[in-house]
Amino acid sequence: MGIRVHKAIGYGVRKFKPTLVFEQRLEDFCEMSRGTFNEWVVANRPAIEALAGGDTKKHLDLDVLLACENSKSWAYQKGANNSNYVLFEDEFGLKDALLIRPLTSHPDWYRHDDSIDYCEEHTKDGPRNRWKFLNQGLYPYLKDGAPTSVAAVCLYLEIPEVFPRLREALYVWWG
Length: 175
What we know:
The protein is of the alpha+beta class.
């Protein structure tokens, strides 16, 4: 097996320092069924919406997460890997980078082992990890503010203080 390039877009922060609680909660999240997480969301919805702030239009992705049983969203992808939605790659990636994809984001917001990406990265400075904050919104979400499903993940991972610092970002790492 050779080195693989991974690329993701989402809402991220640098200078992130994980705690032991975060690491345990992340492990639980990665192994959790979608139904179990949705039950947690329903039970904690007022706290999630308070963390996300804003008007009720901002909470639309949480409604989609809970309502769209036949969608390609995180909540209903059979066999999907939950860890592709919370990207903290301290072994191969940037040690202080955390990127969270909305649970309702399209699956193409994360990819790996793509031949075109592999060739493209080698035309730059060769295989190296990189991070870029974006000056644009990530469709269909508006700029400057992560969706409510990202607030739910932050609350579940017990890192609510990170949510206000999240910005649109591109993360590339090799592993």
